[in-house]
Amino acid sequence: MRQIRNPLAGFRLPEPTGWLGALRTYLVISAVSHLVWETLQLPLYTIWSTASPGEIAFAVLHCTGGDLLIALATLIASLIVAGAADWPLRGRRRVAVLTVIGGLAYTVLSEWLNTGLRDAWAYSDLMPTLPLIGTGLSPLLQWLLIPAAALAMAGRLATGGPAADQSAGD
Asked: What integer best gives the mean pLDDT of the chain?
Protein backbone atom coordinates (compact mmCIF):
# COMPACT_ATOMS: atom_id res chain seq x y z
CA MET A 1 0.00 0.00 0.00
CA ARG A 2 1.36 3.42 -0.96
CA GLN A 3 2.20 5.68 2.00
CA ILE A 4 1.38 9.41 2.24
CA ARG A 5 3.29 11.72 4.56
CA ASN A 6 0.85 13.49 6.86
CA PRO A 7 2.59 16.69 8.05
CA LEU A 8 0.15 17.38 10.90
CA ALA A 9 0.38 13.96 12.47
CA GLY A 10 4.13 13.67 12.03
CA PHE A 11 4.12 10.04 10.99
CA ARG A 12 3.19 7.93 7.99
CA LEU A 13 -0.41 6.87 7.48
CA PRO A 14 -1.73 4.30 5.03
CA GLU A 15 -3.20 6.01 2.00
CA PRO A 16 -6.80 6.81 2.90
CA THR A 17 -9.50 6.04 0.39
CA GLY A 18 -13.22 6.69 0.51
CA TRP A 19 -15.25 7.63 3.54
CA LEU A 20 -13.47 5.32 5.96
CA GLY A 21 -10.06 6.68 5.05
CA ALA A 22 -11.39 10.24 5.30
CA LEU A 23 -12.90 9.51 8.71
CA ARG A 24 -9.66 7.94 9.99
CA THR A 25 -7.58 10.83 8.68
CA TYR A 26 -9.98 13.39 10.18
CA LEU A 27 -9.80 11.73 13.59
CA VAL A 28 -6.00 11.44 13.62
CA ILE A 29 -5.51 15.04 12.50
CA SER A 30 -8.16 16.20 14.97
CA ALA A 31 -6.61 14.30 17.88
CA VAL A 32 -3.11 15.63 17.28
CA SER A 33 -4.30 19.17 16.57
CA HIS A 34 -6.59 19.34 19.62
CA LEU A 35 -3.81 17.98 21.85
CA VAL A 36 -1.46 20.69 20.61
CA TRP A 37 -4.13 23.40 20.92
CA GLU A 38 -5.15 22.34 24.44
CA THR A 39 -1.51 22.43 25.51
CA LEU A 40 -0.79 25.82 23.95
CA GLN A 41 -3.88 27.50 25.37
CA LEU A 42 -3.19 26.43 28.98
CA PRO A 43 -2.00 29.92 30.07
CA LEU A 44 -5.42 31.26 29.06
CA TYR A 45 -7.03 29.25 31.88
CA THR A 46 -6.48 29.53 35.63
CA ILE A 47 -5.46 25.86 35.86
CA TRP A 48 -2.09 26.93 34.44
CA SER A 49 -1.25 28.81 37.65
CA THR A 50 -3.24 26.84 40.23
CA ALA A 51 -2.79 23.14 39.44
CA SER A 52 0.05 20.66 39.79
CA PRO A 53 1.83 19.36 36.67
CA GLY A 54 -0.02 16.05 37.03
CA GLU A 55 -3.39 17.78 37.22
CA ILE A 56 -2.52 19.88 34.19
CA ALA A 57 -1.45 16.80 32.21
CA PHE A 58 -4.68 15.02 33.16
CA ALA A 59 -6.74 18.08 32.16
CA VAL A 60 -5.04 18.29 28.76
CA LEU A 61 -5.62 14.59 28.06
CA HIS A 62 -9.19 14.75 29.38
CA CYS A 63 -10.01 17.82 27.29
CA THR A 64 -8.38 16.34 24.19
CA GLY A 65 -10.45 13.18 24.62
CA GLY A 66 -13.58 15.31 24.93
CA ASP A 67 -12.56 17.30 21.85
CA LEU A 68 -12.18 14.08 19.89
CA LEU A 69 -15.65 12.92 20.94
CA ILE A 70 -17.13 16.29 19.97
CA ALA A 71 -15.28 16.16 16.63
CA LEU A 72 -16.64 12.69 15.91
CA ALA A 73 -20.19 13.50 17.03
CA THR A 74 -20.42 16.70 15.01
CA LEU A 75 -19.03 15.00 11.91
CA ILE A 76 -21.38 12.01 12.19
CA ALA A 77 -24.39 14.30 12.76
CA SER A 78 -23.36 16.40 9.75
CA LEU A 79 -22.95 13.30 7.60
CA ILE A 80 -26.41 12.09 8.62
CA VAL A 81 -27.99 15.46 7.81
CA ALA A 82 -26.08 16.46 4.68
CA GLY A 83 -23.63 13.77 3.64
CA ALA A 84 -23.75 12.15 0.26
CA ALA A 85 -23.56 8.38 -0.07
CA ASP A 86 -20.16 8.77 -1.70
CA TRP A 87 -18.78 11.34 0.77
CA PRO A 88 -16.10 12.69 0.64
CA LEU A 89 -16.29 12.64 -3.16
CA ARG A 90 -19.44 14.77 -3.00
CA GLY A 91 -20.82 17.09 -0.36
CA ARG A 92 -17.55 17.86 1.40
CA ARG A 93 -18.24 21.56 1.88
CA ARG A 94 -21.78 21.04 3.18
CA VAL A 95 -20.56 18.52 5.72
CA ALA A 96 -17.61 20.71 6.71
CA VAL A 97 -19.81 23.78 7.26
CA LEU A 98 -22.27 21.84 9.41
CA THR A 99 -19.45 20.18 11.36
CA VAL A 100 -17.84 23.55 12.14
CA ILE A 101 -21.20 25.09 13.10
CA GLY A 102 -21.91 22.12 15.38
CA GLY A 103 -18.51 22.41 17.04
CA LEU A 104 -18.90 26.16 17.54
CA ALA A 105 -22.42 25.78 18.96
CA TYR A 106 -21.26 23.09 21.38
CA THR A 107 -18.30 25.25 22.41
CA VAL A 108 -20.43 28.29 23.21
CA LEU A 109 -22.81 26.15 25.28
CA SER A 110 -20.01 24.22 27.03
CA GLU A 111 -17.95 27.30 27.85
CA TRP A 112 -21.05 29.07 29.22
CA LEU A 113 -22.04 26.07 31.34
CA ASN A 114 -18.53 25.35 32.63
CA THR A 115 -17.27 28.88 33.25
CA GLY A 116 -20.57 30.46 34.25
CA LEU A 117 -22.94 27.98 35.83
CA ARG A 118 -20.80 25.07 37.01
CA ASP A 119 -17.49 26.87 37.65
CA ALA A 120 -15.71 23.76 36.36
CA TRP A 121 -12.96 25.93 34.90
CA ALA A 122 -12.11 29.61 34.64
CA TYR A 123 -10.37 31.89 32.19
CA SER A 124 -7.21 33.69 33.22
CA ASP A 125 -6.85 37.41 32.59
CA LEU A 126 -5.02 36.51 29.36
CA MET A 127 -8.09 34.98 27.67
CA PRO A 128 -9.79 37.37 25.27
CA THR A 129 -13.56 36.94 25.46
CA LEU A 130 -16.39 37.89 23.17
CA PRO A 131 -18.63 40.71 24.33
CA LEU A 132 -22.15 39.78 25.43
CA ILE A 133 -21.66 36.00 25.55
CA GLY A 134 -18.30 35.98 27.35
CA THR A 135 -17.00 32.93 25.50
CA GLY A 136 -13.24 32.71 25.20
CA LEU A 137 -11.78 33.48 21.80
CA SER A 138 -9.28 30.61 21.91
CA PRO A 139 -11.85 27.79 22.15
CA LEU A 140 -13.93 29.42 19.42
CA LEU A 141 -10.92 29.63 17.12
CA GLN A 142 -10.06 26.03 18.00
CA TRP A 143 -13.48 24.83 16.80
CA LEU A 144 -13.42 27.03 13.74
CA LEU A 145 -9.94 26.13 12.52
CA ILE A 146 -9.24 22.52 13.52
CA PRO A 147 -12.35 20.81 12.08
CA ALA A 148 -12.14 22.87 8.89
CA ALA A 149 -8.45 22.06 8.36
CA ALA A 150 -8.83 18.39 9.33
CA LEU A 151 -11.78 17.89 6.99
CA ALA A 152 -10.02 19.69 4.15
CA MET A 153 -6.95 17.51 4.50
CA ALA A 154 -8.98 14.32 4.95
CA GLY A 155 -11.01 15.10 1.84
CA ARG A 156 -7.97 15.91 -0.25
CA LEU A 157 -6.15 12.76 0.78
CA ALA A 158 -9.21 10.54 0.37
CA THR A 159 -10.00 11.85 -3.10
CA GLY A 160 -6.49 12.24 -4.46
CA GLY A 161 -6.40 16.03 -4.15
CA PRO A 162 -8.60 19.04 -4.84
CA ALA A 163 -8.65 18.50 -8.61
CA ALA A 164 -10.15 15.03 -8.17
CA ASP A 165 -13.20 16.45 -6.37
CA GLN A 166 -15.51 17.70 -9.10
CA SER A 167 -18.42 18.31 -6.74
CA ALA A 168 -16.93 19.36 -3.40
CA GLY A 169 -19.29 22.29 -3.26
CA ASP A 170 -22.41 20.12 -3.26
From this structure: 89
